[in-house]
């Protein structure tokens, strides 16, 4: 019996220590996310959202449910690293790989629950597709851009950036005599600004 009491006391002590460490790890995540967002606002490519944890990082991350937040922020960071970058012959392969990674990350976010976040990802995918079209790619890139903007508006009717970008794109295509395979059924309204890469809302 004495052995069982000692074993029980040790187990209780270990559990208490683990709970205390887990609680500390949980508190570390909001600070890490806020700090990363602050850096992102000034230097997007330098931002990092990584909490310093005592226990395996997945424990507190799963408990708080911040995995989707991290995926979305990483996707935005990849987007910012690629948008506006002009490919060069000596870096063409690396640029293509980085662009594919950004598109894949945004597409993943677009498939996740959460209308506002999915809508933002669709908007940025549309910006990338239209950038390709503007650089001389095939009309199919314009189709992709229109489709992405329409889906963004469908996912989140309050997304003024997507409405603006869709309306502007359709006007540009008409002005240049281009036809797309998509029909503007999302009802674009008078947007106030174009797509941006701001950090999405917190989920922790």
Task: Write a compact overview of the structure shown.
With 204 residues, this protein is mostly helical.
Structure write-up:
There is one protein chain. The protein has helices at residues 2-42, 57-64, 67-82, 92-111, 115-134, 139-155, 160-175. The protein is an all-alpha fold and 204 residues long. The relative contact order is 0.11.
Write the layout of secondary structure elements.
Elements lengths: L1 H41 L14 H8 L2 H16 L9 H20 L3 H20 L4 H17 L4 H16 L29
Helix pairs in contact: 1-2, 3-4, 4-5, 5-6, 5-7, 6-7
Largest β-sheet summary: none
Low-pLDDT segments: 182-193
> How many angstroms does the end-to-end distance come to?
45 Å
* Helix-strand category: mainly alpha
Radius of gyration over all CA atoms, rounded: 23 Å
- How many DSSP H or I helices? 7
Element-by-element helix/strand order: HHHHHHH
Mean pLDDT: 83
Count of strand segments: 0
Main traits of this protein?
elongated; 0% strand; mainly alpha; 7 helices; 204 residues
